[in-house]
Amino acid sequence: MSSSPWWGPSVFALAGVLIGALATVGLGLLNRRSERRRLSRDQKSRCYPELLRLATELRRLPVWPVEAGDPRDRLDDLQSLALEAGFYGTAEVNTAMSTLLGAAQEFAAMITFLRAESSPGHRNKLDQRFAERHGTATGELTSAMTAFATAGRHDLEIAGSFQPVEPKVLEP
Known about the structure:
By secondary structure, the chain is an all-alpha fold. It is 71% helix and 0% strand. Helix 1 packs antiparallel against helix 2 (71-88).
């Protein structure tokens, strides 16, 4: 005669089936969550550096010659990508991105103003009366870019600090 009740093996079998089903569902949910996280990280890994590239392009845009390009075109590209990146970004990244966009708008407006209110100097140099204003706008854009890069690296869990690589510009 057995010392276990007649219903014991059935309860253990049912419990085993339930635990197995719950484990399968739980692992499936975790897998989908990690897949969504991976896709989001892939988008961020694409958008964040591209935003920095576009901001760098804008910052390097010379006032003269005008043929170098319209700053508003570069600003439009930057703002379009920022809309996408803002969808994936954290609050910290989006705050830094808003600051970056504000600085980029100021910089583009400054270039447009200088082109309308001044004329190129010798070898397309900037009129010295506006050099301080240009330097301030460039500095603010550079600071905003660094803050955005730092926030983006933190979001992507990249260790270390951001050190931009700036090639030396050779004068002709």
